[in-house]
UniProtKB/TrEMBL annotation:
<keyword id="KW-0560">Oxidoreductase</keyword>
<dbReference type="Pfam" id="PF13561">
    <property type="entry name" value="adh_short_C2"/>
</dbReference>
<dbReference type="InterPro" id="IPR002347">
    <property type="entry name" value="SDR_fam"/>
</dbReference>
<dbReference type="InterPro" id="IPR036291">
    <property type="entry name" value="NAD(P)-bd_dom_sf"/>
</dbReference>
<comment type="similarity">
    <text>Belongs to the short-chain dehydrogenases/reductases (SDR) family.</text>
</comment>
<protein>
    <submittedName>
        <fullName>SDR family oxidoreductase</fullName>
    </submittedName>
</protein>
<dbReference type="GO" id="GO:0016491">
    <property type="term" value="F:oxidoreductase activity"/>
</dbReference>
<dbReference type="InterPro" id="IPR051122">
    <property type="entry name" value="SDR_DHRS6-like"/>
</dbReference>
């Protein structure tokens, strides 16, 4: 029988996090660095990257990359060198519209970063992942539990789940998993008026079994677990305070 060693650590490992200048991505970077990892954070805005680096240990790296452009993603990975884990949390504010008022070109644009950006990151990042490493993607519960107006969001989440399973098979033994958050307090909701946003958070939080909505660290801890464990692959890990139950 193969001897089992304690591999559940991120000490000394290098983690590349795309979409990490704020919210879930930045929380994941902070938590990973606290666990001993060397983190590389990527976002589209250099000013926000610089601000995020102030919250990370010395030696952390940060790069501004337009994740809507395949060539930029390829160039980034061609120059970054080997690493252990890839985390993709990038996404822009979604506008929720029922199908009758949805402009198709706007709907297609939302796939650029959330889906095709992740697709390109996996394509160009996977060859640089060291043995025992992993790819960790982000979806959401909209595919499992959509509401009216969530047609685009549900489509992206469902597409990401299928992509995760396919890559877990194709890229084995690299582990590929996806974290599906519920409602999380991040700046992705800043497109809503503040009063409407807070009412939404309060209403949903009171309805959840957890009696609160999520915060970025809830999701960050899930990403850390998925990097540290060494057996699950092709899995969708739902972290939603019980949102799919109601």
């Amino acid at each position: 029988m193969e001897k089992q060693t304690n591999r559940q650590t991120l000490e000394g490992q290098r983690i590349v996090i795309l979409g990490a200048s704020s919210g879930i991505g930045l929380s994941t970077a902070i938590a990973a660095a606290a666990a001993g990892a060397k983190v590389v954070i990527v976002s589209g805005n250099q000013v926000r990257i610089n601000e995020a680096l102030k919250q990370l240990p010395a030696g952390s790296e940060g790069y501004a990359v337009d994740l809507a452009q395949e060539a930029n993603i390829q160039a980034f990975f061609d120059g970054i060198g080997p690493f252990d884990h890839l985390v993709y949390t990038a996404g822009e504010n979604l506008v929720l519209n029922e199908i009758g008022s949805t402009v198709l070109t706007d709907a297609q644009r939302f796939f650029n970063v959330r889906y095709w950006g992740a697709f390109a990151a996996v394509k160009y990042g996977a060859p640089h992942i060291r043995k025992g490493g992993s790819i960790n993607l982000t979806g959401g519960i909209a595919g499992q539990r959509p509401n009216a107006g969530w047609g685009v969001a549900a489509s992206i989440c469902s597409a990401m789940e299928g992509f995760t399973r396919a890559m877990a098979v194709e890229l084995a033994p690299v582990r590929v998993n996806l974290v599906a958050p519920g409602i999380v307090r991040t700046n992705l909701w800043n497109g809503m008026p503040e009063t409407d946003r807070e009412n939404l958070f309060t209403t949903i939080g009171n309805a959840l079994p957890s009696k609160r909505i999520g915060v970025p660290d809830d999701i960050a801890q899930t990403f850390l677990y998925m990097m540290q464990q060494h057996f699950a692959t092709g899995q969708i890990i739902t972290v939603d305070g019980g949102g799919v139950l109601i």
